[in-house]
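Lab notebook, bench 4. The sequencing result for the construct came back, and we need a structural model before the next group meeting so we can plan mutations. Quick request posted to the team channel:

Model the 3D structure of this chain.
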Amino acid sequence: MNIFATVVFFALLTTFLLKLVSELLNLKASEAPVPQEFTGLFDEEASRKSREYLRATTTLSLCSAAFDLALLLLFWFSRGFNLLDNLLRGFGYDAVVTGVLYIGILLLVQSLLDLPFSIYRTFVIEEKFGFNKTTPSVFAADLFKTLLLALLLGTPLLYAVLWFFETTGPLAWLWAWCGVTVLSLLLQYVAPTWIMPLFNKFVPLEEGELKRAIMHYAETVHFPLAGIYVIDGSRRSAKANAFFTGFGKRKRIALFDTLISGHPVDELVAVLAHEIGHFKKKHIIISMVLSIVNLGALFFLLSLFMNNRQLFDAFFMTNLSVYGSLIFFMLLYTPVELILSVFLQVLSRKHEYEADFYAVSTFDKGVTLGDALRNLSRSNLSNLTPHPFYVFLNYSHPPVVERIRRIRAHAAALQSTSLN
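Done. Here's the predicted structure in token form:
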């Protein structure tokens, strides 16, 4: 193997081994006693179910990762990349169309091979533990819609990126960066109106105590809302969630019906305050800027490895191509991607703490955010004692116990200050 093949091979292997070690450590850590913060809420039965759920999902995740790695290595060393390339070149299409077909076929085959794992998780694991509400017809409809969106949105985007690198010379990476960035921002703006409703129903929150409490809080922190919507999350899962959509005056709150049904008003407003905290602390903008910068760096580095003969030799490729450069560079980029993901996870956990503190500081019953986290952890069978190494690699949110402790400490400090 040449240097590029060696780097890619060991990067893929190291990534899998890190996943394996962190998952096994996490399973071991889940056997720790229930933290004091959950005494009376997580009984022995709930703890047992939580550990069983973690074991089931971890086993499936490791099997899926091992299968993907074995499949990639088999395809690579059986010269599958080159065989597919020669096959598609035989149709006589231009380089851009051939590239779209090449990448599209690889992504489609990967999705089809991963489908059994998705089906098993949904209809076996999630069903066993009482989370699944998805019917086979809804599951199939979601797959069809996802495929259709990939064709309608992903195909033109991929075509544009390949066209830029084929025709616009040394600054192709800049054109591709600008084009993808503009489209990404546009999609974030139109997704709440045109894309999300394809999968879920958005119904305006009816008048009542919850809506009045939300609107009152939003006014106190000067956060204008265009609407508060309820999502039929119970159509697919018993798990709960909440998020913001839209920009500017089109900002909207989306609450899962499962969240509303499982929590009192004060907890729901506290959850909302946490989400508003992300907006007020500029976390959304920071994440978008970092994503855009990372995308620009990725395209620039790609331009440096474009049509690199040694890189193509590593994958037994006869012919050079832009689309081949894109795929092989992304595999070469694996160790960089891993390091960046760890950095972004650290930043995300910091942002979660800041949003928690914002909720406690601006909502007079913000301490109930801790109660909401406790109840969500119980209903979702969360792992209350994750291993630090697993958290370091994978958690975008801090462990729930640490969040609850800091929320209570911050609330106590604020109360002490107000009394003085």
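The radius of gyration is 24 Å.
Will bring this to the meeting.
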